[in-house]
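DM between two lab members

TW: hey, do you still have the Reverse transcriptase domain-containing protein entry open?
JB: yeah, one sec
JB: this one, 352 aa:
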Amino acid sequence: MYLKQKYYEGGSKSMKILAWKLKKKIADSTVSKIKHQETGNIMTKLSEMHGAFEAFYKNLYSKVTGWTEDEIDHFLNSINLPTLNEEQNERMTAEVTEMELRKAISHLKTNKSPGSDGFTAEWYKEFKDELIPIMLQTFNWVLKKSQIPPSWNDAIISANPKEGKDKFECSSYRPISILNIDYRLFSSIMARRMEEFLPNLISNDQTGFIRNWQTQDNIRRTLHIIEHIQICKNKAMLMSIDAEKAFDSVNWDFLYRVLTKFGFHNIIIETVKALYANSTARVKVNGYLSKSFTIQRGNKQGCAWSPLLFALYLVPLAQSIRQNKDIKGINIQGKEHKLACYAYDILIYLEQ
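TW: and the structure you got?
JB:
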């Protein structure tokens, strides 16, 4: 209570308590040494730590040999998925309007780190009237040609330590991608368009990233199922599946095929390909950037469109579980409950 009072009294003034807070924040985010994943050696020099993080993320985002295109198509053809209609596709591929762009700029959060070009949200807000005509031409050119400005390829990965994890391990740091704001504006516009149609494409047992669908809905449903099991004394189990590095492990070829299966217009699929292909990143450690390396898989964190694309990416797995007759869900009043999805965490209800 005393600490809160001091914060209130001081506000933004330069006081000891503010200096202490800032010093602690800097100390918590500073990397003093790190273990190289491949050699196991402890690195203490800045250049060596850059090399360790670069090697870790380069390996994390390297393409992994998986299914062939024919195998992906065979799997997707074995499940039933809804598709977008012509009107919805027209909405997705329509030219970006001034109203959409103004709304996106107004929603930009201030006091945030800019991308590699150095232009901040405050700058876009201040000069929006001069920038909007130019940006509209660029955004609509991207949609029409499925090509992006070279600056959109670059991301800065800020490695933030996870609480309670070993700070000497690269895997103990959460990668936050910092993208240029013009890229963020374009992706937020496309995300707002797509989120209108997601409830038509995704079952309501999958929450996370879907507008107006709350995680607590699935939690409440799970509690009801547990209560039913206890009352009826049925033999049942709940199995939790937590996909490690799920967001960073997205296979792009599979994602493109999933979008095709959902009936998205080729313009949208090619635009997504343009945003992901030729992606590069640099890791920021202690305020300094590593060398650039290529990204070959994963969703772009910091991109407003990526969480929605991930939600669609997960649907085929969820639907294959629903359709699998060998997986017996829990039956309540004639309705079978098999699973609940929370972003990339899956809870499966099993009977007997």
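TW: got it. The longest helix spans residues 128-145. The first strand starts at residue 34 and ends at 35.
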